[in-house]
Amino acid sequence: MGIPMSRPAQVIDLDAMRKRQRAKKRLVRLAPELDGLEMLYHLASDPETLYSMPLLAWGMREDGQVVGLVPWMEALTPCHHLDDPEYGHFIGYRDPETEEVFQGAPDHKVFELEHAAAYFDYEETSEPTLIQQLPDTQGTHALCMDGEDEPWQLKQVFGWRLYSNGDIEALLVDEHRVESTPVVPGDACLYAGHSRHQVVYFFQRVIANRIKQEDPATLEALALMVNH
Q1: Could you tell me how many helices (H) and strands (E) the chain has, helices first?
Q2: DSSP class of residue 51?
Q3: Distance in angstroms (rounded) separating the CA atoms of residues 174 and 186
Q4: In 10 A of CB 158, how many CB atoms?
Q5: Residue 144 has pLDDT above 90, yes or no
């Protein structure tokens, strides 16, 4: 009978493994949604009622998966990440023209992103670099807060920047630095939201207008969300 040979213990670097997993989910390319496709979601308090929200864009991850993106709470968020009993649970995508509901990205967006990602194949850098910029086409607004004792500001989102590490930042306008109008990409008055503000919450245009009009119910819901 042979003698079983002992194998040296294999050291698993959990931190490196986690970084590799995160890298696979990193967004590498964006494509705007210009045909009105929507995200469907429901609330735990009323699971029978479906709500819709227009998609801002589609994003391709490093692993090749294409996901829909919406401005949600504090980030431009992949739809399938919505899994909160209070704020919403993702159901699927919807074409409001045909009323078709589907779970994955449509083929034409997958093809668009695959070809764009192959063409714009950037080299890796040690520091995050800007690789893409999209305009905001939905009138998204950002509620910006700098501290507990500081007044909040409601600012329109000009666009979105994708960085090489997968981070996405909202582009806001510094009104004091506007030299000419309309503001266009590359103007010095544009800045990334989190570069100046501690907290940034995103709202659709309809909700932003209710905040501007000081609608009591909207302001009450806003106070609950901010203090949550």
Answers
A1: 4, 16
A2: E
A3: 13
A4: 22
A5: yes
C-alpha 109, offset from chain centre: 17
Nearest to 144 by CA among 170, 175, 168, 167: 170
Residue 168: both structure tokens together:
């996405």
Nearest of 175, 167, 184, 210 to residue 74 by alpha carbon: 167
Q: Are strands 75-78 and 27-32 parallel, antiparallel or unpaired?
A: unpaired
Q: Which two tokens stand for residue 30?
A: 């964006």
* Of 46, 56, 59, 55, nearest in space to 89 by CA: 46
* pLDDT tens digits for range 2-44: 454 444 555 554 454 444 445 568 999 999 999 999 999 999 8
Distance CA 171, CA 168 (A): 10
Say if strands 66-72 and 141-145 run parallel, antiparallel, or are unpaired. unpaired
- Count of residues making up the chain: 228
Q: 3-class DSSP state for residue 30?
A: strand
Q: Which amino acid is at 169?
A: E
Q: What is the mean pLDDT of residues 95-119?
A: 97
Residue 182 has pLDDT above 80, yes or no: yes
The CA radius of gyration of the chain, in Å to the nearest whole number, is 21
Strands 75-78 and 46-54: unpaired
